[in-house]
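ARCHIVE CARD
CATEGORY: sequence design from structure
SOURCE FIELD: tokenized fold
FIELD CONTENT:
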């Protein structure tokens, strides 16, 4: 079975400017590129982005806008020698979604539908994997799935107040998180 490091996107990898989807708004959080490079050295782990994108469901931007943004992010990753193994996004919102996006889905964090899908598609043992994120929803999702968790102080920094959480570690940024996982990956 494979292991994975599941990474939230907005506020963890890139600066969260609320419903970010314009390429000109793409800025990486301090330490994000260096952190991804370090995590990539843990060859036994898949790097997978798990991101909520309710802005699609709310009608603020389209799935095409999302994919264009991600294409640019991946282009910049490649320039920095970073390869992401997978990506999953949830465009839904149970109350504020419009049309087909207004559903109470299994992929909206903290539900674990995206993690379960990745586990099936990549043969991942969730109990030997990590979740890194800036929101309590990310950490709660990881806890429910049986993953180890790291809260980063970038983005929302766990101050969204949605859940009372106790991550395995609280990091200053993605680089600090990567160092912690690097030191504790074999435990």
């Amino acid at each position: 079975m494979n292991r994975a490091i599941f990474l939230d996107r907005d506020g963890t990898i890139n600066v969260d400017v609320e419903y970010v989807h314009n390429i000109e708004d793409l800025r990486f959080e301090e330490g994000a590129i260096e952190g991804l490079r370090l995590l990539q050295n843990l060859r036994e782990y898949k790097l997978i982005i798990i991101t909520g994108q309710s802005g699609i469901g709310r009608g603020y931007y389209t799935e095409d806008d999302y994919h264009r943004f991600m294409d640019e992010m991946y282009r910049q990753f490649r320039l920095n020698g970073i390869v992401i193994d997978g990506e999953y996004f949830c465009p839904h919102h149970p109350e504020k979604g419009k049309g087909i996006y207004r559903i109470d889905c299994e992929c909206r964090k903290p539900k674990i539908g995206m993690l379960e899908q990745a586990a099936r598609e990549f043969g991942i043992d969730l109990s030997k994997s990590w979740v890194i994120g800036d929101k309590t929803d990310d950490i709660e999702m990881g806890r429910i799935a049986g993953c180890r968790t790291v809260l980063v102080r970038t983005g929302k920094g766990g101050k969204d107040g949605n859940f009372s959480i106790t991550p395995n570690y609280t990091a200053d940024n993605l680089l600090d998180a990567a160092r912690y996982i690097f030191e504790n990956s074999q435990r």
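CARD ANNOTATION: Helices lie at 32-40, 54-57, 63-79, 113-122, 136-145, 174-184. The chain has one domain: 7-184.
SHELF: design records, drawer C
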